Amino acid sequence: MIVLTVGTAAILFCVTLLIFLWEGARRARSGRPRTEFWDTIVFDNWTTQLVTICSAGIRVSMGFQIGLAAAAMAAVILETAGSRFCDTAMLSIQRASSSSAGPLDLLPTAWRHCLAGRVSGLLYFPILAFMVAIALVSTLTSTILLFDLEQGHISAPMATHLKAVGFDNSSMYPYSSIAYWKSRPLAHWRFAETRPGEMETELRTENAVDTGDVYRAMLPFDSATDRTTLEYYQGPAVVINQRTACFAPTFSNATVQWESGEGIAIPGLHLNATSIVENQTDFLGRRAVPSEPNFLTEVSSLTVRRNDTGVLRQLGVGISPDNTTGRGILDLQVHPGPDLWIDPDEEDRLQSAYLLLWVTLVEYSVIGGWSLAGGLMKNDITTMVTWSTHPEHAAVFQKILQQTGDPAQAVQALIFRIFQMLYYDWLPIFDPTHQVTTINTQEVLTPQKWTGFAVVMAIIAAHFAVTALTMVLFAKRTESSLLGNAWQAVSQMVSPETQDIIRAAGGEGMKDKEVEVLAKSAGRSREAYALSSGIHSGRTELRVRQI
Question: Which positions ≥6 away from 340 have C-beta within 8 Å?
Answer without folding.
Answer: 275, 277, 278
